[in-house]
Amino acid sequence: MEKSHVVKGLLTGLLIVHGPAFAAEGVGESVFSPVTVTDNPLEGKYQQGSSEETYSKPGAYSSRTLNKNLQSLDASLRSMAGTYTQVDPLQGAVSVNIRGMNGLGRVNTMVDGVTQTFYGMAPANYHAGANTAAGAPLDTNFLAEVDITRGSSAGAQGVNALAGSANFRTIGIDDVIKEGRQTGVLSRFSVGDNGLGRTGMISVAGKTDTFDNGGALGALVGISGSRTYATYKNGGGRSSKDFFGSDNEYLRQEPHSELYKVNFNPDQFNKIEFSGRNYANTFTRRDITSDDYYLRYNYAPLNELIEFNVLASTSRGNQAYKPESLYNFEKSSSTNKSNALDISNTSRFKMSEDLFTVFQFGGKLMDTRYTRSFTQASDTDRNAFAPAGKQNISSLYTGLTLNKDIYQLDLNLNYTRSKLEGHKPACADNEKCFPQGEATLHLNDNAFNPSATFSAQVTPWLQPFVSWSRSSRAPNVQEVFFANEGGASMNPFLKPEKAETWEAGFNVNKKGLLTEQDTFHMKALAYQSRIKDYITSESFMLCYDGSLCKDIENSQDGFNANVYLNSLSPVTTKGYEIEAGYDVGFAYVNVSWSKQHTNQPTSITSSIYNFAYDDMSDLPDSYATLDVGGRLFNQKLTVGSLVKFTGKSKRLSTEGINTDTNSVPKESMPDIPTVIDLYSSYEMSDNVTLRFSVQNLTNRDYSEALNRMNQSLDYAKEGSSVNTTARGRTYVFGGEIQF
Length: 739
Prior knowledge:
Radius of gyration: 26 Å
CATH topology: Maltoporin, Chain A
Shape: globular
CATH superfamily: TonB-dependent receptor, beta-barrel domain
CATH class: Mainly Beta
Structural class: mainly beta
Number of domains: 1
Number of strands: 40
């Protein structure tokens, strides 16, 4: 889509709709829409968007309430426009994909506003190698909502975020305690057949009466556990043992986690929240732990110029590997630690009689370290096991909202500086690299990332918008210090990725469309992104003069360096996204639809057998979810169906690396059929809600898009099925108890 066409289309829409139609519905009434501050606690509860805000906030933004229809977290995210997940059954973590981009920095994945830096490395089957991926180990029982911002993200969540951000909110005190009470219990449970297993969570919370000075004290503690079995049957009746191979015996898992929150408001102006989240799991021959802690402070006196926020957090993840789980490694473990500090202030004031202004200024510091420990019989400098190093990211960000009459202009800018440091071993005498000897590498990068969004509430129900943004993300430790050939595989000249994105669309919020009581919501938009210096990897040989080259006929045997580098050709992504909903009380229908195209290259490291570091991230050319249902018996019983459509999709070719083009070709996957789920919920009382679901109702046999197991060359080479198929028909029963 040409930029001029985007702008012309928006202006044409404004001219067509503006005028008498708006005058008839209230000329001169200003609607003041302040900046959403992502780190503002509200009565001890992390403030976040809602599903309704999806259709009122300009730009590519979506919000969902979770744990409502017994869907997996992957399925819930895939039901949102422009949003998908990279699935790796060996990881036990969620990896959010936005518009074909996923991974550290490409998508800023957060939990309660805290950026997640966990990098999973799961031992794979036949070659005792490993699949690796950035992801967040999460206990879905503790999740309440998720916000997705595609494209540019304002404020702290936009720091080092190329394609957007995903923020998961865990349950808070006000989620557990019912209104008007001071104590509460919330419990969730589910049990499913076909290997889905069982899960349960219980949380207890209490809070005091409001103090005389407006303060309060509250606390929450929760514990959760699950058991998921390794073996299931697909739609064709085959056991997962047939296509998971020897990995199947390591896929049974029993994760458990705890959640703690303490809210202390000394008075009506000061709010303090402390939270801890612990996760532990034994999975795919490794012991996994992930711990997050944060302290949040909000000061909001009776002064429109001051709303001061501080978020200090620390996170730690560890993976300890069982003996013989990794080729040629013993007593091996990897650890990631991350400390962050985010400080900001928001001011609200009038610049004139009819010009409302919101100004935010803040800064974020983030220090992330990846370390490893292992013993190895051979040269320890020549391995790609858990690259080690540290990255410091510092940023200043501003946000300015100007609101006059029906018009709103949002201007944002962040300046980000990244420092990357790590050890590079010396290259052999017959290898030419820089620096030649042992050294500590330092990579310093700076970026200015502005964005602008213009919107107009041309009628009470129609809000068109257009936006432009620049975003960037710095190279990470795993890319710079990848070392399958020691120092010769490392690239001290790797540059950040930079994206320029245009979006144009509109929101519709209409009550009384067909009847007096119904509501209709819709968000539709088109986008185009152009990414410079896209980071990928290529394969190099060692020529006889000691330099890296791609001439396999004139290269020395036994040397094949996989080096991360910046693509010389820009990567373009473009597409369309629609989310819409109609609710008439006794019935409802919601739909999301995405269509996109990208020409991003496939990284060579996706295909190596010992440590596969990248996945192919091509989204299906289109995908959609239709949610239709009805409410009976005074709306106590809800019965609905989810219809999931997936278009043409690709995966890594089973032929492996094409030595002529030095790339991994892509091939079309088998067609993915339309999958239908049924769900229901019944409110037995104010305290008990029961749920029942039938997933894959028609028992279709299919392979999921963007599933690591459907593109692993290990499986193809060893004769196992490269079509790792999804669960067949599965029954799930669950519920929620709150009192």
